[in-house]
Each structure stands twice: as structure tokens, then as C-alpha cells.
Write a structure and sequence with these properties.
Blueprint lengths: L3 H4 L14 H19 L3 H17 L21 H4 L2
């Protein structure tokens, strides 16, 4: 279970407020996970626990899934602030 300490913080990284950065964020997270799986080769139990957690987060549409954005989940109020999105 040592390898979970490198995988679980990935689920806590927030998605950017600016929708233009969602693709870049998804690509970065995907490449990080791919390189981690190839380099560190986590045990099967750790990989299954992480994939189950990722599936549950994305399936429930809590808003922190980096694979896609749920259509029904609203953006935070600060996402419509031009001073934040315009940067």
C-alpha cells in the first residue's frame, strides 16, 4: 500500500476554473498517471483501489474528475468573474 501515497493526492488536485485549461489539465494528469504506472509499477491492489476511487469520483460528478466535465454540474461562482477567467 506504499504506492497509494503517490496516487491518492492526484485525486485532490483541483480542476482549473478556466474552461480553456481543462484539456491541458486532463492531458497533464493523464501523462502523469501513465508515467507513474510505467515507472513505479504499483501493486495490483493499489492500482485497483485508485481506479475504483477515480471511477466513483467521475461517476458521481463531484466536479473534481479530470477526465471530463459533467454537463449538469455547475461551475463555481468565481468561474464567471472576468478578472479570474480573463487571466
Amino acid at each position: 500500500m506504499y504506492c497509494l501515497q503517490w496516487l491518492l493526492p492526484v485525486l485532490l488536485i483541483p480542476k482549473p476554473l478556466n474552461p480553456a485549461l481543462w484539456f491541458n489539465h486532463s492531458m497533464f494528469m493523464g501523462f502523469y498517471l501513465l508515467s507513474f504506472l510505467l515507472e513505479r509499477k504499483p501493486c495490483t491492489i493499489c492500482a485497483l483501489v485508485f481506479l475504483a476511487a477515480l471511477f466513483l469520483i467521475c461517476y458521481s460528478c463531484w466536479g473534481n474528475c479530470f477526465l471530463y466535465h459533467c454537463q449538469d454540474s455547475p461551475l463555481p461562482d468565481s468561474a464567471h468573474d472576468p478578472s479570474i477567467v480573463g487571466t
